Amino acid sequence: MRLFFLIILSAFQLSNAQDTLPLFNPELPVELRIDDLIKRLTLKEKASLMLHNNPAIERLGIPEYNWWNECLHGVGRAGKATVFPQATGLAASFDEDLLFRVATAISDEARAKHNEALKKNSRLQYTGLSFWTPNVNIFRDPRWGRGQETYGEDPYLTSSLGVAFVKGLQGNNPKYLKTAACAKHFAVHSGPEESRHHFNVLPESRDFRETYLPAFKSLSDAGVEAIMCAYNRVYDEPCCGSNLLLKKILRDEWKFQGHIVSDCWALDDFWLRHKVTETQVESAVLAANAGVNLNCGYIYGYLPEAVEKGLIPESLVDENLRPVLRTRFKLGLFDPIGMNPYDTLSAGIVNCKKHKALALESACKSMVLLKNKNNILPLDKSKIKSLFVSGPAAANFEVLVGNYNGFSGEMVTVLEGIVNRCDAGTVVDYSMGCLFNTDSVFHGEWQAGYAEVTIAVIGLSRLLEGENGDAMLSDHGGDRKEIGLPANQIEFIRKMRKAAGEKPLIVVITAGSAVSVPEIAEMADALIYAWYPGEQGGNAVADVIFGNYNPAGRLPVTIYEKTTDLPAFDDYSMENRTYRYFKGKPLYPFGFGLSYTKFDYSDLKTDKSSYNTKNDTIKIKVLVKNSGITDGEEVIQLYIKNITSKEKMPNKMLKGFKRLPIKTGKQDIIEFNVPVKSLEIWNETKQQYEILKGKYELQAASSSEDVKQKLIIEIK
Fold first, then answer.
1. Is there a shared CATH topology between the 355-581 domain and the 599-715 domain?
2. Helix (H, G, I), strand (E, B) or coil at 459
3. Helix and strand totals (H; E) in the chain
4. What is the number of other CB atoms lying within 10 angstroms of the CB of residue 614?
5. In whole angstroms, what is the distance from residue 266 CA to residue 258 CA?
6. Which sequence spans correspond to the domains of the chain?
7. What is the 3-state secondary structure (H, E, C) of 528-575?
8. How confident is the model at residue 227, as a pLDDT?
9. Within 10 A of 265 (CB to CB), how many other CB atoms are there?
10. Which of 1, 120, 182, 626 is the most buried (most CB within 10 A)?
11. Of 555, 576, 573, 526, whose CA–CA distance to 705 is shortest?
12. Residue 488, Cβ neighbours under 10 Å: how many?
């Protein structure tokens, strides 16, 4: 009885403390609440709150919190959630509004799952509100296994989609963050995976400034709450200990106001792999001096020792702790439940009908039609009596989800999607046909000779490409050595083509990266790039095949013809990489994608013919008409090319895009407003940005190579 009384008394005292301490008073300014909390913390407690797995500070009534949570394309690793297409698939939509709506749905589910976890007194990893998403590294080389997590190879596309995603995650409440987004991995980080913990990148300053930094700058300007520093070194400094990256650029130049988090166990790399420090204490000091606020790992547990030895002052710990605490306050984690408007989100919203419909829309919008010989697609399912579905990806769960995923409990494979869309009188048969990457194992290809149409679903999965340690079938740490398909899959399609004869062979490719498929493109009558399309992927593929949806996805990456077209994987120069600098002819260019209808462009014009280099804006209009026989969407792309400068310049630069539905026979005027400032380049001699005067060509295009209209303007 005495023990029970003491427990009740303790709880009462704790509740009373929370009622009276300024740090728990939601009416006070956040900075004053932070001041109050910091002065009450011991040095050891301060250090503990700068680790990703914050312990509870029971004497102050502060619960534990784990900063490590994932939501790359749906709340990840936390059970039930809507699974949207992998990031490269979302990028293929070329649709900022879609990414905003997807991120809004994800943040709704994240809050609901967090609220439900709290009801069980659970604060486990992956139930929090700080999400280490999005990945805005540039997908400079298709061999990188983690490229699937990005928005492709172009800085402008990545910036635009990344900003939309961050806005959807963080919400628009003036006081509270819905969730805290994080731009990663800062900076110049895109493989190889096997050497990510110790490689050093020495990029040319123009590549650094014009390719690798812009997306991070855009997200910083948009108010992203956190930025994650990468494992590798840049210009000889570990990213998480870099004075250049974290202080000069991020804090001083960009005025970034959020918190900086290390990639997980990146501070361990200082002394174990980069060899720039000798001990854990020295590693903690290096990161603290660089301005890292939150350590995913354990190294910041040595901060008290560093202070005691006089290596850093405790005031530096306080300074670095402040942005982390500010994020927790902005999330409402120190306020009474019910005060935050997001506290009302409940379990019913998780994978609800609306979100499932959005997952289907997203998957449909991500589909890229690469080939459609003799307009074989869409198929008229009312007339087809038999279909044969085959291939290692046809009934495979892994190809739907990519990595960093959740699980909805209703994952629709391509086989299931096709069956779903066919009537009861249509014969649909299936055989796996071959494995993903095992030679000389084939089965059932003869059935292609008996079906009216064969649908082969091949490609990669997260077992073949992904993060180091996760891609179980990769021999290269998650990366790929060659950019083509495994040889056995090519042989499988040869057998299918031979068995099918003159009857249609439709090939669907699953992948998170650009896969070179010249042999497949030659043999297939129709070719669909499906990416890792999420929980509704199978239904989306079927909707495209049967014409329920007119495809309008566009490639956010260049598909090269062969691996030897590329520089060495570990060469971070942009020379001969991506559509901006590639000198050869790609198999499929950046921005490419076919439709079941036809669009005509005309009347490209600007508001004037010349502009100044101050604060001018280029106002552009182009008329686009659907001259085909069916309704559809067009992705209008605006490229700009400097045609007078003798400087090393990109082939062209994407500076605008709009995805627009246009009914058959109708037309629309598309407008772009391009700030002249967005044309600036980095002057390597002056070490500053400048706008080159001269003539520029504006291109209204349906891909980086299919220019429909162009005109010349001048910057004076």
1. no
2. strand
3. 19, 24
4. 8
5. 19
6. 355-581, 599-715
7. EECCCCCCCHHHHHHHHHCCCCCCCCCCCCCECCCHHHCCCCCCCCCC
8. 99
9. 15
10. 182
11. 555
12. 18
Q: How far is CA 405 from CA 75, 79, 397, 490, in A?
A: 7, 9, 12, 29
pTM higher than 0.70: yes
Cis peptide before 114 (omega within 30 of 0): no
CATH 2.60.40.10 fits 599-715, yes or no: yes
pLDDT (tens digit, 9 = 90+) per residue, 335-367? 999 999 999 999 999 999 999 999 999 999 999
pLDDT digits over 46-100, tens only?
Answer: 999 999 999 999 999 999 999 999 999 999 999 999 999 999 999 999 999 999 9
Cis peptide before 192 (omega within 30 of 0): yes
For 350, the token pair is: 């998780």
Catalytic residues: 263, 465
pLDDT digits (tens, 9 = 90+) for 667-684: 999 999 999 999 999 999
Lowest model confidence (mean pLDDT) among 18-27, 74-83, 408-417, 512-521: 18-27
The pLDDT of residue 15 is 53
Please give the C-alpha separations between residue 400 and each of 106, 155, 382, in angstroms, as whole numbers: 17, 26, 28
Buried b (16+ CB within 10 A) or exposed e, 679-696: bbbbeeeeeeeebbeeeb
- Reading the block at residue 161, the tokens are 């989609």
Whole-number Å distance between alpha carbons of 153 and 176 = 33
